TrEMBL record:
<dbReference type="InterPro" id="IPR011048">
    <property type="entry name" value="Haem_d1_sf"/>
</dbReference>
<dbReference type="GO" id="GO:0006006">
    <property type="term" value="P:glucose metabolic process"/>
</dbReference>
<keyword id="KW-0119">Carbohydrate metabolism</keyword>
<dbReference type="GO" id="GO:0017057">
    <property type="term" value="F:6-phosphogluconolactonase activity"/>
</dbReference>
<comment type="similarity">
    <text>Belongs to the cycloisomerase 2 family.</text>
</comment>
<dbReference type="InterPro" id="IPR019405">
    <property type="entry name" value="Lactonase_7-beta_prop"/>
</dbReference>
<dbReference type="InterPro" id="IPR015943">
    <property type="entry name" value="WD40/YVTN_repeat-like_dom_sf"/>
</dbReference>
<dbReference type="GO" id="GO:0005829">
    <property type="term" value="C:cytosol"/>
</dbReference>
<protein>
    <recommendedName>
        <fullName>6-phosphogluconolactonase</fullName>
    </recommendedName>
</protein>
<dbReference type="Pfam" id="PF10282">
    <property type="entry name" value="Lactonase"/>
</dbReference>
<keyword id="KW-0313">Glucose metabolism</keyword>
<dbReference type="InterPro" id="IPR050282">
    <property type="entry name" value="Cycloisomerase_2"/>
</dbReference>
């Protein structure tokens, strides 16, 4: 989407930012709702276009085909908000609010080829699959795929905790990350929803806590960020052996508490970024198609506490970082030669940022 007032400089884009608006066990939420910002790549500055104050805890957003979807992360009264992206990306118009079954939805994604939408319920450990109509609105009662099991960490893995679900580029399969059971599950897509049983499950190491993943464009590899073990694991998805490589998201000499959060694959298909809350950094890697598969490059000190989410501008020129507990977002210009990034502009004050969603 292109706001006519948006700079034509590399990296410039429209950006939707979700926030925490309530105090929860893991965050002192002070956010206002959903912010729509214009990012100017020439000055690395953010400019507010709109604030939607209605949504409660819109902690994850997804943009697709002229629509913005956001989950309201609550143990009770969870909801999905749907907006039309208008005025070249410079405005959001509410289209509807849908009450969600289950507890604490934390991720939403769209499968455009299959016209389906997926919501991951962290609290109740289940996936919701909705059919989308021609206007992008979820229809009817969702298919519910309930996970089962537990992991070795009694404090975080007493049961299933679904944290992520997204389709492959061709829309034929959906991969789920279950932090509570150390499982990455693959479900086939059908015209009426998803196959209820996974066709394959990849087992992360016990206690790893797979949170999010990034797929290569051809669907051959998945890079999984593991929250509890602070690691990134690379899996070959078309081979029985599965795991190909694993690397820490933290420096060897780090001894403090930390929890990995987001992972993003650069448009070049090689540079890989994973965020750390605690160490408050972004680990940089190169993803290879043969051994050693994953090469650590270095770390970016983001200068703010709890970087819950990171995003890449659509052209890959900038890394954007949301420092949840220091209440700002900031842009970092990527050096394509090294993959590392350098802070640009000034931190943009924004309370309790939880999700960064560049508009396509």
């Amino acid at each position: 989407m292109h706001d006519p007032t948006l700079s034509s400089a590399p990296g410039s884009c429209m950006l939707a930012v979700g926030t925490y608006t309530e105090i929860l066990p893991h965050v002192q939420g002070r956010g206002r709702g959903i912010h729509l910002l214009a990012f100017d790549g020439a000055t690395a500055s953010f400019h507010e276009r709109q604030v939607l104050t209605g949504p409660v805890n819109p902690s994850y957003l997804c943009a697709a085909a002229g629509r913005l979807y956001g989950v309201s992360e609550r143990e009770r009264d969870a909801a999905l908000e749907v907006y039309a992206i208008e005025a070249g990306g410079a405005a959001l118009r509410p289209l509807g609010r849908i009450a969600l079954p289950g507890a604490a939805p934390c991720h939403v994604s769209v499968n455009l080829p299959a016209r389906q939408l997926y919501v991951s319920n962290y609290g109740s450990g289940e996936l919701l699959c909705y059919a989308l109509d021609a206007g992008g609105m979820p229809q009817g009662t969702p298919q519910v795929i309930a996970r089962r099991g537990a992991g070795p960490r009694a404090d975080r893995q007493e049961g299933p905790h679904l944290h992520y679900a997204a389709a492959t580029g061709d829309g034929a399969r959906v991969y789920l990350c279950d932090l509570g059971t150390d499982t990455i599950a693959c479900h086939r897509v059908r015209p009426d929803g998803l196959a209820p049983m996974p066709e394959r499950e990849l087992r992360a190491r016990p206690g790893a806590g797979p949170r999010h993943l990034a797929l290569t464009a051809d669907g051959a590899l998945a890079a999984v960020v593991e929250e509890l073990s602070n690691t990134v694991a690379v899996y070959a998805l078309d081979e029985p052996a599965g795991e190909r490589a694993r690397a820490s998201t933290l420096p060897r000499n780090w001894r403090g508490a930390s929890a990995a959060s987001a992972i993003r694959l650069h448009p070049d298909g090689e540079l890989l970024y994973a965020a750390n809350r605690g160490h408050d950094s972004v680990a940089v890697y190169r993803l290879r198609r043969a051994a050693p598969w994953l090469e650590p490059v270095g770390f970016i000190d983001v200068g703010g506490r709890a970087p819950r989410d990171i995003a890449l501008t659509p052209d890959g020129a900038f890394l954007l970082v949301a420092s949840q507990d220091d209440h700002f977002i900031r842009a970092w210009r990527i050096d394509p030669a090294t993959g590392l990034a350098h802070a640009q502009g000034q931190p943009y004050p924004l309370a309790s940022p939880a999700c960064l969603c560049p508009l396509p």
